[in-house]
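User: Can you predict the 3D structure for this chain?
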Amino acid sequence: MAELFSRYASGTQWTAGTMTGSVIGVSGINPMVDRLNSIAPSNLLVSGTDLVVHASGNSSFTKTSYLSIAGAEFITGTPDVDDISVGGDTGILHPQATATGLSATCGVKLPHGTVITAALVEGIIAADWFWYLFRSAIGASSTGTKLGSGLARTENTGMNVTVNNQSFKYWLLASGLNANDDVHGARITYTTGYD
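Assistant: Here is the predicted structure, written as structure tokens:
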């Protein structure tokens, strides 16, 4: 990003026509570059934002954002006060000493059209437990499609899932929770494009 501003400082004018090695004109890009240079502090756009300049002179921004979910938002399918406690002052889900093989789910609500690029569920691992990100058709009662997964405290950064809220619902599953396997929370990394 900084290269755009350092190579083409404010006031530099690109002429209409073609760039070296290209047959596509760049008319109309001068005002955009000048405007970006005039508003960008220290020659940088907002952190986590990328600018894409298309050969047509059009541009789009991609912003990276994060959804955080407290462990207390995860619920078990058959809650039992003897098996689960939820920390009101800590925001965590805590299986008690009697808990074995519990699963807990949490809805994921992201803007339509965003792209999920990574996910992570944090917690304490007394015994190995795993997390999964699922989606299924709205109104479907069948098992969802797994979009990503990982061992607790392991971020899956190889995801590329476009959110379609018109057709699908999304949720996280923490599976295999036993005594003292706390779910502290989850983070989903996603990008939003702006044209």
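The chain has two domains: 2-57, 65-194. Residues 1-27, 42-47 have pLDDT under 50 and may be disordered.
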